[in-house]
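$ fold --in a.seq
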Amino acid sequence: MNIKFLDDTRVPDHPYPELREVLYTFVNEITAELAENLIGVYLVGSIATGDFDLDSDIDFLVVTNTELTEKNIESLQEIQAKIYDIDCYPAKHLEGSYISIGDLNNWPKVGEKELYYFDNGSTTFEQSTHDNKWHVRWILRERGITLTGQKPEQITQSIPRHELSNEIKTTMLEEMKAFENEINRPRCYWNSRFGQSFAVLTYCRMLHTLHTGTVQSKKAGVKWARQFVEPKWVNIIDQAWKEREGVRFLEKIRQRAEQALLYETLEFIKYAIAQKDNVEV
């Protein structure tokens, strides 16, 4: 089957050759359901920033002209379930949101409105601000892969760097509080092996964004951080990157991280936050 997308050369064939067929089915089903209401289907996340690997999920954003109807909501969940039933990794790791063009460009309200969102591996909509963020808009506008529809630069303007930076600084503080609240509790998200490593890698990535004004992958964030943070933090960064390997098997999220490592991670988070105001924007 000769499957082509608008940004075809940017859709990776490795490490999952079956990804192309999954996306082809996904796009065709969504196009048929939304018809004239569809503006475009885009890939964001690591697949767009260029470091898609065995443990990556497939992040998408669908932009519409108007709000979804009740019929749309029901049908799109059925489509998500149909895709999930395809027997391959990419089909079971689609994650993303549906956003109207009005909400996409309603900059004063970024981060406020909950969108219809599929979590990684879910076939049921939840309402979440997960993708109603400045950094998602930045990836869409600057790095998004257009599967079908209008190109991102045709539907939204460049994201102001100060908005991106302010969002990152706020997120750094919020996630530190969440991590600190869970550090001594029975196994939770942040004190799992998955959550601990995710925290370290995410703070590397956020520091990278503050310094560069761009949103890159976790891998790029790690590479940058190893060169720019104080040397004593390099070991925990390397540990986190190694720990990330194999998270696709969903075992590490059910296993508690070592307590000493959690405390070291919290100290790294505090160090990263202390650096956030040392960047001129």
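$ fold --in b.seq
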Amino acid sequence: MTENISAALPLLDRMTTILEQSKDDNDRQFVTALGRGLTLLAAFEQHEQLSHQQLCQMTALPKATITRLIHTLMTLGFLRITEHGQYQLGSSAVRLSATAWSRHDMVATAEPLLRQFASSNEVSVNLATEVEGEMRYHACCRSPARLSVNLQVGSAVPVARTAIGRAFYAASSPARKAVIRSNLQEHLSKEEYDRAQSALTEATEHYAKYGYTVSDGEFSTDILAVAVGVFDIATGQYAYSLNASVPSANWQAEEYAAMIVPKLQVLAERVGNGV
């Protein structure tokens, strides 16, 4: 029987060890082909793009096996090939992970924290993650103030024109950033994509310097919002982002950020830690 392998190990190391143990144990219930395919996907945990040769080296699988696995995973949408002939995670992988994240206990834990935060600070606060080029809302707590945009759980907003989308992108790993860009390219015109990429690059620089992103009237003319990433300690990834928004007529962007961002960062840490 396969021993329990620590989830703290890098995913590729963990899965490679399980593959080896199942072989040593002659586990007839273990589907080796499936295990190899999932192991190949695990190689992308810390890498934006990988070549055929790199996948062979990292997984220690035969070249012919890698070729068949790549073909299968591309057919199913779990991998895609770049214009430079390298491979990266495809839309099916992102959709599957987004579904898992949406069902994570973090959302249930976050809801009462968000309600308390919205009430105490008189802001609207939301938790979202990126799905196929949009930010999908998983928890929403509205401010008493009247806002022109009424967003609910399940609502979707643009990645590049919202603070919550910009923060998610800025906090994401290189591999996840690449998937987001791919999703945007698939759903936007070239002109729209170029504008989005410019906005996300600028937002990433701002996030690196100040620890948050901002959208002042860019998504809706009367809304000022700031946002931060949420690091999920259970998965070791930035799984969500949090925003806090107010009517833009009530605040200057810098004054609002100075007041709310430190509190929002504390909230993000509590949500990510599940406390």
